[in-house]
DNA sequence: GAGACTTCATGCCTGCACAGATTGGCGTCA
DNA sequence: TGACGCCAATCTGTGCAGGCATGAAGTCTC
């Protein structure tokens, strides 16, 4: 599937910046990229503009396109997240996203219990039942996809569009977790019960119970993931802004 | 200060989309924008590419530049957040950001207590002391700026770059809250004590205490903000993805 | 209703002029 | 001699104008 030249240019440069192939501080010239990719100026210029909007580069006259470091990247940019998950900084990205999940999902469950429309409640109950079935029969592939849809549904049901927007990176987190073999052979019976409890509490409009049930899930998630990547270096910006 | 034509084009089109002047579904032509802004194609094309990366538009051959609706916007894009805060959707944006704060900041405080380098602890204690002084003397302007720096410092001290990146929108949230007169005449003595407790707990490396103290702050914040904007409509995407 | 044809806006390319930041040379002065 | 300040050359992104290619939408025919 040959995408547009524009997208390929973004991909080519952006992925190399995020995986460290092009170090921060490096200065590249638009003309270099033109000949390197065999495309014209307009393609390069438009791609650079998009990369600049993600904080990956700044372009200044007479000097060129300066590559910025991780402290300047927009960590919520979907492209940045994807490139980080694909490359070497995978562990740090998974840990960051998991910490975000642990913070956000209990709140999302609480809000969902207050505001979720009926369709979402029905779908949540449906998903919880199917998760139990898939989990008990050991169908890990189906379980993963149902798990993804369950958590995306809770985030959407919160009615907070920022929460809902985290569904995609969180889905990638869940996929990454299973790909790396951080999941148990088959889901714990407790986990199945907790998901059911979340769906029940949201459907019954019990915010406090929904939050607590989701916190149980997140507590285990946090142990599973953040323990593994605890050694990965943390990024601290300059204290003085 | 006349910015670059590129930035002005982004601003012109993007702000009109977010504030609803250009409704979702509308199709605009690049040629229209050229004559409307009196700039050349390259400027328009580069601007459209950036707007497309934020999910505001999609451009397809033979049809033009189609404006997308709020459900497709990237709610974490700094430009989108700024435009939403500037326009009519201000209330919903403030509520969303506040809910995000309430979820994230206790977790950030917990992580900060585990990982924060010494410089951050010193600065936090310093800021807490100055906040108390400014708060008791009724200097609300200074208090606001110190409050912003305090919360930004906690987020940075968590060592999670996604949390740290929320400092700017959260700062705007705090400014918006005071501009709209949602703050008390002078800060409550309790609030001053809670901020001090957060700084103390982080400095003493007591994660649980840091989280609980921050939760006290957030609980009040949530009451102050989300109560006011409770009526604003919530955005629910389609349950079926 | 299926397929071929026309249409038309974006995709992509190229040449040119301009603006502004860096660099280095030049002259001045201590 | 050496350090400083000014100015001009230079280099690179910014913006402009125009061209052809592409492919999706609509139309027409069978």
Provide an overview of this structure.
- The structure is a homodimer of 241-residue chains.
- Chain A has 241 residues and is mainly alpha-helical.
- Chain A is 67% helix and 4% strand.
- Chain A has eleven helices and three strands.
- In chain A, strands 1-3-2 form a three-stranded antiparallel beta sheet.
- In chain A, strand 2 (57-60) and strand 3 (64-67) form a beta hairpin.
- The radius of gyration of chain A is 21 Å and the shape is elongated.
- The N and C termini of chain A lie far apart (45 Å).
- Chains A and B meet through helix 3, helix 5, helix 6, helix 7 and helix 8 of A and helix 3, helix 5, helix 6, helix 7 and helix 8 of B.
- Chain A binds a DNA duplex (30 and 30 nucleotides) through residues 4-6, 29-31, 39-43, 45, 48, 59-65.
Low-confidence stretches of chain A: none
Average pLDDT taken over every residue of chain A: 93
Please report which band the strand proportion of chain A falls in: under 5%, 5-15%, 15-25%, 25-35%, 35-45% or over 45%: under 5%
Shape of chain A: elongated
**What is the H level of CATH, i.e. the homologous superfamily of the largest domain in chain A?**
GntR ligand-binding domain-like
Oligomeric state, counting identical vs distinct chains: homodimer
Total domain units of chain A? 2
Structural Rg of chain A: 21 Å
For the biggest sheet of chain A, the summary is: 3 strands, antiparallel
| H and E order of chain A | HEHHEEHHHHHHHH
CATH topology of the largest domain in chain A: Four Helix Bundle (Hemerythrin (Met), subunit A)
Biggest interface in this structure?
A-B, 53 and 53 residues
CATH 2nd-level architecture of the largest domain in chain A: Up-down Bundle
Number of helices of chain A: 11
| Category by helix and strand content of chain A | mainly alpha
The tally of beta strands of chain A, per DSSP, is 3
What is the helix fraction of residues of chain A, given as a range?
55-70%
Supply the CATH class of the largest domain in chain A. Answer: Mainly Alpha
**If strands are numbered along the chain, what order do they take across the biggest sheet of chain A?**
1-3-2
Q: Kindly, what is the distance between the CA atoms of the first and last residues of chain A, rounded to a whole number of angstroms?
A: 45 Å
């Amino acid at each position: 599937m040959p995408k547009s030249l524009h997208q390929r240019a973004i991909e080519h440069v952006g992925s190399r910046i995020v995986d460290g192939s092009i170090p921060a501080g490096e200065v590249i010239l638009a003309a270099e990229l033109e000949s390197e990719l065999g495309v014209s100026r307009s393609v390069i210029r438009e791609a650079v503009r998009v990369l600049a909007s993600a904080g990956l580069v700044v372009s200044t006259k007479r000097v060129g396109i300066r590559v910025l470091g991780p402290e300047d990247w927009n960590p919520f940019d979907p492209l940045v997240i994807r490139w980080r998950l694909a490359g070497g900084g995978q562990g740090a990205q998974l840990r960051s996203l998991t910490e975000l999940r642990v913070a956000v999902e209990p709140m999302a469950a609480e809000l969902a219990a207050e505001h979720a429309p009926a369709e979402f409640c029905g779908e949540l109950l449906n998903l919880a039942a199917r998760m139990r079935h898939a989990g008990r029969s050991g169908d890990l592939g189906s379980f993963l996809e149902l798990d993804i849809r369950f958590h995306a549904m809770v985030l959407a049901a919160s009615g907070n569009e920022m929460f809902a927007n985290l569904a995609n990176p969180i889905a990638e987190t869940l996929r990454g977790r299973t790909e790396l073999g951080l999941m148990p052979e088959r889901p714990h019976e407790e986990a199945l019960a907790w998901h059911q409890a979340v769906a029940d509490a949201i459907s019954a409009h019990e915010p406090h119970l929904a939050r607590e049930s989701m916190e149980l899930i997140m507590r285990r998630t946090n142990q599973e993931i953040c323990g593994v990547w605890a050694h990965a270096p943390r990024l601290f910006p300059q204290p003085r802004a």
